[in-house]
Amino acid sequence: MDIINAHDLTVGYGGTEILRGLDFAVPEGRITAVVGVSGSGKSTLLKTLAGLLPPLSGGFDFAGRAVDYRSEASLRLLYGKIGVLYQGGALLNGLSLFENVALPIRMQHPKMPEDMVRDMVFASLAQVELAGSADKYPAQLSGGMTKRGALARALVLDPDVVFCDEPSSGLDPITSALLDDLLIRLKETFRMTIVVVTHELRSIERVADKVLLINDGGLLFSGDYADLAAADDAFIRTFFLRKDSHDDT
Amino acid sequence: MSEITVTPHPPETIVMPKRLRAAEVVAVINDIRRRVEAGPLVLDFREVEEFDSSTLALLHYLRGHEASLAAVNIGGALARAEESFVRAPRTEALKSRPSDGRVVRTLTAFADRFIRQVRSLGRFLAMFGDEVYHLGVYLKERRGVYPGETWNQLFFMGYRSFPIVCLLIFLVGVTISITSAEQLRLFGADIYLADLVGIAMLRELVPLMTGVILAGKVGAAVTAELASMTVLEEVDALRTMGVVPEKFLMVPRLLAITLVVPLLVAMADVVGIFGGIVVAQAKFGTPPSAFITEMLTAVDWTDFGWGLVKTVVFGWAVVVGAGFKGLTVGRSAEEVGRATTESVVLSITLIILIDCLFSFILY
């Protein structure tokens, strides 16, 4: 079953189209990688799917309901079902890691007892192996810890879909691989739907069940990662299979 | 190896050195210019092993002067570099812009700027309205704001601003008293210095100076903080957590400025008048009790009250202006600095504009 269905979706800024007429689906309980070269519009697409940037035309359904950007209630419903891991983590610098992870709970459920908030926060931090760093502030965390802390915050209210914007960016290969393992574990353990925006081939190869390849303002490929090998397109072969025209000849 | 042109006459050949970088390129190009006048040349680059971007620039230059050359022979790595960087087709040709007249361009730019400013003003007023709404909702429901944040802001805006406000207002009190004292002495109206200082401080100088200090200290800090949060996607993160950033970030600051301004104004009034008392005592030997008794014949609680109301409005203008600039910043780090500067200018402009309106209403 698909949890996100986009129909003729056009996104961009200030009337300038970046991606045009996209039709795609994100399957539930799987990891979908949105892939493309730098500046192709991957993060812009993620912003639209996360309810931050209204589409220029077209739209998308989330869990069977059309997302209406003009309706605050519709957006609130969407925000209640998603978690987002931003490229730089986007932890609030004035709050400790514990307070950062507790923030969504306190804002969504202000009357929840404090000991319950504490249990939820530590459960989420334990998933990302950061329970011992709860009292630290973002400035005291390494890049990898910041990303994992931000992931804990994105997971704390058990969202239906987690969007990850370039989770590997700025991380060394080992930390990046650990983060990939974490995403795979979340998918396998909780049947979580994860949408990863990336251009890291190694990461795509490890985590992606499905790939949405964006190029030249449109969707070039949408399908299982395994099907990429059979793809005939020159750009796909260059991008994924690292074969250029010299190799073909 | 690639060749460009071949002429039928046996031409002179220049063999390029193994190392052909910027220093050598300058010598070579002068040599070519000199010798090409004698007849077509063959330039042989095949022995070049060391080259840089100036070598490629030389090749590009030669491509533009092919007519006066017999041949350009290139081989090896340099040929591949030329293929990639010199001969590669431009993906986007530069299109010449339609050449409007200077008057039309100036008018268009002015109109664009005017429309942008009007839109910006509209967004600012909309945000002002939204903030009043958010504050009202918060006071009713007590949710949507991080617990304890208002206290943090009170500490920053009040405790941290208190010394600088007091120091500057005291100095303003002293300055206005010294300036006025000389004029009043001419008319033998020394004692009326108390009236002048009292009225000036309570009605005008304390509200205005406090507002300007808040714009510089609080407004700039609020803009820098919120703009950094916007650039670092923290504001987006709040939104996708179901938090309304305009409420979460702004309501504590508005509450804090509303609570802290009366205390600041009260202290600033006392300190400013104290500056006047010090000057009156020093210049005319007026005892403090006489100064205060005379001052109280000229001012009453309404002067203090209006001064307070004005400063609260200034404080709101500073915080909303700062929040507006911080939350509407672009996505680059350099815009944080620009937004902070604009925020201070906007706040001071708003303060003076509002002060002018109050003057029309009150006097």
Write the layout of secondary structure elements.
The complex is a heterodimer of chains A (249) and B (363).
Chain A: E1 2-13, E2 16-27, E3 31-35, H1 42-49, E4 57-62, E5 65-66, H2 72-79, E6 82-85, H3 97-108, H4 114-127, H5 143-155, E7 161-165, H6 173-190, E8 193-198, H7 201-207, E9 210-215, E10 218-224, H8 234-239, H9 245-248
Helix pairs in contact in A: 3-4, 3-5, 4-5
Chain B: E1 12-15, E2 19-20, H1 22-35, E3 41-44, E4 50-51, H2 53-63, E5 69-73, H3 76-85, H4 102-141, H5 149-159, H6 162-186, H7 193-231, H8 234-240, H9 245-248, H10 250-284, H11 288-298, H12 301-327, H13 334-362
Parallel strand pairs in B: 1-3, 2-4, 3-5
Helix pairs in contact in B: 4-10, 5-10, 6-7, 6-10, 7-10, 7-11, 7-12, 7-13, 10-12, 12-13
Helix content range of the residues of chain A, please? Answer: 25-40%
Find the count of extended strands of chain A (DSSP E, 2+ residues): 10
- SSE succession of chain A: EEEHEEHEHHHEHEHEEHH
Q: Tell me the Rg of chain B in angstroms.
A: 35 Å
Quickly count the helices of chain B: 13
CA-based gyration radius of chain A: 18 Å
Interface with most residues: A-B, 27 and 18 residues
Globally, the shape of chain B reads elongated
Question: Which sheet architecture does the biggest sheet of chain A show?
Answer: 6 strands, mixed
CATH topology of the domain at 1-81 and 162-172 and 193-249 in chain A: Rossmann fold
Unreliable segments of chain A (pLDDT under 50, ≥5 consecutive)?
Answer: 244-249
Uncertain segments of chain B: 90-96
Relative strand content of chain A: 25-35%
The CATH architecture designation of the domain at 1-81 and 162-172 and 193-249 in chain A is 3-Layer(aba) Sandwich
Termini separation of chain B (Å)?
A: 89 Å
